[in-house]
Every structure is written in structure tokens, then in C-alpha cells.
Design goal:
Layout lengths: L2 H18 L5 H13 L7 H15 L15 H23 L1
Helix pairs in contact: 1-2, 1-4, 2-3, 3-4
Amino acid sequence: MTQGERERITAYRDLIALFMTGNLIAKDFQSRFLNLFKNDPGISGGETYRILESIFEEVESFEDDPSIRSKYYTNEDQLRSALGILLPQLDALLFDSLN
């Protein structure tokens, strides 16, 4: 993993951590994550891409407004739960890249 990839993964990790710790509301997290993901120059594939794509799918399925949320969309608690599973996977990638 290159230094640039580590820096980009760290940017995702830090953004998710802000949301998970309650320092960023879900709607703002969604907007910032989608902007970061869509403007990412690219991760070289493999496990990194798989994890980020999974996170992207969870974030994109989040709907803040319960009046328009269908069974295909997630609420804030569901998003937080999914990210709670995926964040340690990002952490493991960063840890493994340092060894």
C-alpha cells in the first residue's frame, strides 16, 4: 500500500470516526463521505476497494427523512451499526500496511 493510499484511507477512517463518536450528524456525514468517495482519485483495488465500496453502499442507502424512508433505506442507527462493523476492517488495513 502506498503512502497516498494510507492517507486516503485515514481520511475515510477519520470521517467515519467523527460520525461514530457523535461529532457529526448523519446527514452531514453522508454528504461529506459521498463527496470524498466520488472525488477519490482511486484506491488500487483489492480489499481496500471492497471495504470502501461496502461503506459507500451503506452510506448511499441512508435516508434521514422517515416519511420517505422505505424498507430499502436505512436509518441513522442502522448506518451506525453497519459502520461499526466496517470501521475495524479499515483499521486493520491501516495496521497491516504499517507492518
